Amino acid sequence: MEPSSSQPPTELVFSHDRLFALHGEIWLLVVLLVFALFLTIILFLPRLIRGRRPESEVSNSNNIPRHLISLRKPRGSDGDETVEEQQYSDRINHNFPLYAD
Length: 101
Known about the structure:
The chain has helices spanning 20-52, 55-59, 79-95. By secondary structure, the chain is mainly alpha-helical.
């Protein structure tokens, strides 16, 4: 038996669309641009919303979320607390000196 005289195709044909690669590149560009637009919206939307508020609303301290407000007293507001802190510091320094006597 002789092999058939027809030559095998030199290239496999997956699609009959000649511009398959060009269409793929266009879709890649479209997807990347949509993703970049999405990220831009996510990054700049909070700034746009904040910029549209009236100044009185922005400067009002009541708009600060509760989790950002410290419920503790500021340091040094209580005289007893500073004395206790000093005594504790003195005890630690006495028990664990940084230098040898």
